[in-house]
Each structure stands twice: as structure tokens, then as C-alpha cells.
Amino acid sequence: MGRLIDWIDALNEAIGRVVAWLSLLMVLITVAVVILRYAFDLGWISMQESVTYLHATLFMLGAAYTLKEGGHVRVDIFYAKMDARARARVDFFGTLFLLMPVCLFILWISAEYVADSWSVMEGSREAGGIPGVFLLKTLIPLFCVLMLLQGMSMMAHAWRVLRGEETADER
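Above: the chain's sequence. Below: its structure in C-alpha cell form.
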């Protein structure tokens, strides 16, 4: 079980580090769009849409990494004052009863939506747009799978803290 958890953590760590570079690319493309538009009166829909694609990819694939690193919003006013075992209980049960059901619901509800998009190889509605909307929509189930995997890792780490097999610092 430990190897699986380490693999999940390493997977989301690698994905998070790779997609973090998308923020720089997004900024550079946005600057280029603005300069081209206002300095040269030029613009391309696909270039503007690429910023949306990069933004979606950054957030959808980076969410599990953020969860791993403890970067998601929570009520820290209470959580920060708890001891390690109480935080482990919150992490375990919060993941089990909140994160996992929400991700499973999103995965279930998005399946037909994404499949329909793939069936017609959906592209941009704009002339000259990116012909890969189906790929953009595929980020939804990928987000769910990565979050579910990271949730399993969180639960395993929390369980190990509760059993005294791991300290909160080892996570």
C-alpha cells in the first residue's frame, strides 16, 4: 500500500510541477495578444482561446497537486489549532465524506457530456478557433481521477497518523 501512495503522491507532484509552467506560458501569450491587438491591430481567435485552454489545464490538472501540498482553502482558524491526530481525523473523514462523493458525482455527471463531445470531435464555435474542445472537456474526468487518487493518498496518510505509524511531518 505504501508504494501505491508514494506513486500517487509522485504522480501528482510531477503533474503539478509541469502544469505550473503553464502559468508562465499563459502570461506570455496574454502579453503577446495585448501587444498584437493594441500595437499592430492584429488578433487571432486561436491565440486568445489558447489562454483559456492553458488556464483550464493549469487549474484542472494542478488541483490534486494543490491538495497534496495543503493549498486548498479550509477553515484554518480551527484546523491550525488542532493536534496532529485531530487534523488526521478531519482529513480522513473530510476526504471520505466530502471530497470523494463530490468527485465521484462530477465524474458520473460529466461522462456523457465528455463522451458526446468526443463523438463529434467538438471544436471551437469561433471561426479560426482551436478545434479541440473535446480535449478541453476531457480535463473534467481527469481532474476527478487525480483528485480521487490524491484523496486516497490523503486518507492513507491520515490513517497512518491515527495508527501512530507516521507523524504529520512525514506527509
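The mean pLDDT is 91.
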